[in-house]
Amino acid sequence: MSDFSCVVEQVVKRYPRHCALDGVTLSVPSGACVALLGHNGAGKTTLMKLLLGLTRPSSGRVRVLAEDPAAAGAGFRRQIGFLPESVTFYDEMTGQDTLAYLARLKGVDRQQCVALLAQVGLTEAADRRVKTYSKGMRQRLGLAQALLGRPRLLLLDEPTTGLDPILRQEFYRMVLALRGQGVTIVLSSHLLTELEARTDLAIILRQGRLAATGSLEALRLQADLPVRIRVSSEQPQSLSEQLAGIRIVRSEEKMLHLAVPVQEKMTVVRHLTSLGPLVNDLDIQLPTLDDLYHHFGHLQSEESSAA
Amino acid sequence: MKTITIIAIKEIRDALRNRWVVSATLLLAALAFGLAFLGSAPAGAVGAKPLAVIVVSLASLTIFLLPLIALMLAYDALVGEAERGTLLLLLTYPVSKGQLLLGKFVGHLAVLALATWLGYGAAGLAVGWSGGGADPQSWRAFALLLGSSVLLGAAFIAMAYLVSSLVRERGAAAGLAIGIWLLFVVLYDMGLLGLLVATRGQIHEQIFPWLLLGNPADIFRLLNLTAFDNVRSFAGLAGLSGQIPFTSLQLVFALLLWIIVPLSLATMLFRRREP
């Protein structure tokens, strides 16, 4: 088995009206859980389609499980599970029949359907027609079909949209359990949530280009985002005079917003507490994943506008 | 092969579940029984007519109805799945586009055959037995009708797939399917008739039969009305047989071409299409 499940080299995908991917190079290590991040239209779904072999790149090379997905046969597809964005099924079929049909197509034993339906909590709704299902139930049926035949590579396109927080937790638990079994997981998202935070690798796409890639820890270091400190004070004017050398992002009537490099956080906090009655209260905000995501998203747009 | 069977069975189960099979069978049976037992009511008599006459009436009914049923059954086979979003998922399974199309074809054909054979078969048996049995030649003509009806339906199913692989919206596919029905069932023959009138029947008798091969419905008509003597006499085509330069086998072959060519074209177009 090769070290990388998916390798994408210099891939460009042009459609008649727009360029969905513009020279993307990346690789997904085997057994990793990878978050593919980006706004709507950043090229996430196109990248998924290329990995699935549903479409061919305009130029560049795609290798998935050491094969060209667009030319690969049934054996390749049996090793892949896919959950499309807002998955749809045949309305008139029951959940059970739908899964059984897909299992037959994939050459999977029917026993597995029962177990999978139980795993996603659809046992009771199994003999109801899919058209009576809620969005969350469809999504869970979608996950069940993606897991048919114990795939080596799982591609999940926006898997948690439409799931309520409890279901989302359950979903994370299942996905993370799979990672423990050596399944490579690629999931796309336009939001950073708890799951993406627990992934091994984040790939951030912006307008069809790679904006950043690496573990979230590495990206956090690389971005070097400031800690934000909110200080409330009765006399913001005299307080700001005491804060020479510290960047004040915004000042309001009784509130100052400071941006401080991570290393200097404690120094600044000590200084603030030593100021006595000038400071009423303070509130520290560490850079969130969303800040990180926006940082890399905007970096790219600044570069392209400068170019 | 296994994949094709799985898809075909799914299509058949779909058609059984949404009562498509039941309604098509009942419609065909009702019309067939109507033609068989009430066809002579305007003349003041109600009763079964000879099987050979039924074959002539049913052949005309088939030409109008079966293409329409086939087109309605199959026009959204691909575009419908694409629009619903199920095609995207299906193509990530170990299913090739050729297998998907062929599986649907087998399934739809089975559904059509079931409806036609049950509907017509019931009427045919009733007529045959109520008249104290028919001669063997009439039975053979009736069997030919049943078999060629399915071929005619298959040709229109194949054309429906062609439509379905060409367009992006179900509505457009439905419109085109109706257009195909109009073209082959109504307009083509009117055009030929117009041609005959315009040329005062001077159109070369070598060319005219070949023009009939340009329409699967006409091939079906020729095949059923000229294959057996007794049917020919009832159809008023007794004198025509000498002028038709094709054998029954050649006509069946032409009908098969009308299935294979559109189906191959549809497969080719579908393969090129990206979800």
Structure description:
The complex is a heterodimer of chains A (about 300) and B (about 280). Chain A is about 35% helix and about 25% strand. Chain A has helices at about 45-50, 75, 95-105, 110-120, 135-145, 165-180, 195, 215-225, 235-240, 265-275, 290-305, and strands spanning about 5-15, 20-30, 35, 60-65, 80-85, 155, 185-190, 200-205, 210-215, 225-230, 245-250, 255-260, 280-285. Chain A has a 6-stranded mixed β-sheet, sandwiched between helices. Chain A has a 4-stranded antiparallel β-sheet with strand order 11-12-10-13, with no helix packed on it. Chain A has a 3-stranded antiparallel β-sheet with strand order 2-1-4, covered by helices on one side. In chain A, a hairpin with a 2-residue loop joins strand 8 (about 200-205) and strand 9. In chain A, helix 8 (about 215-225) packs across helix 11. The longest helix of chain A has 18 residues, at about 290-305. Mean pLDDT of chain A is about 85; it is low at about 300-305. Chain B has helices at about 1-15, 20-40, 50-75, 80-85, 85-90, 95-130, 135-165, 170-200, 210, 215-225, 230-235, 250-270. Chain B is globular, with a radius of gyration of 20 Å. The two termini of chain B are about 25 Å apart. The relative contact order of chain B is 0.14. The model of chain B has no long low-confidence stretch (mean pLDDT about 85). Classes of the chains: A alpha/beta (about 300), B mainly alpha (about 280). The interface of A and B includes residues 55, 78, 87 and 104 of A.
Notable characteristics:
heterodimer; A: about 300 residues; alpha/beta; Rossmann fold; Alpha-Beta Plaits; 2 domains; six-stranded mixed β-sheet; four-stranded antiparallel β-sheet; 11 helices; B: about 280 residues; mainly alpha; 12 helices; about 75% helix; globular
